[in-house]
Write a structure and sequence with these properties.
Radius of gyration: 16 Å
Number of domains: 1
Order of helices and strands: HHHHH
Structural class: mainly alpha
Helix content: 55-70%
Distance between the termini: 38 Å
Shape: globular
Number of helices: 5
Largest sheet: none
Length: 103
């Protein structure tokens, strides 16, 4: 979506709900709760292209569907600062009350 384009309140509402559901699905799946499924799938695509582990059938189908709706959607949705428990690690590093405890 063009970041300079104005979005009406109704569209903004539905985009917000879609993003929340996307992040909820990611958390339910066991991935970082603040990373979108599209970002995870984009990282899987990159890893596969680089000769890493092949994507499983369901993620591959979902990735192709999203990329079919919006060209290169998953690759463009990659959040480099999210994933691999980046949020939890950052919280543990910055919260003095729990610093030093093993989780």
């Amino acid at each position: 979506m063009d970041k300079n384009k104005k979005v009406g309140p109704v569209k903004r509402y539905f985009l917000g709900v879609a993003l929340a559901l996307d992040q909820l699905l990611s958390a339910i799946r066991g991935w970082d709760h603040d990373e979108t499924v599209s970002s995870v799938l984009g990282k899987m695509e990159e890893h596969e292209r680089a000769g890493g582990r092949k994507m499983r059938p369901i993620p591959k189908v979902v990735s192709r569907a999203l990329n079919g709706i919006d060209e290169d959607h998953c690759r463009e949705a990659i959040e480099r600062d999210e994933g691999k428990n980046a949020i939890a690690d950052s919280y543990l590093r910055n919260n003095s009350a729990i610093r030093g405890k093993r989780w």
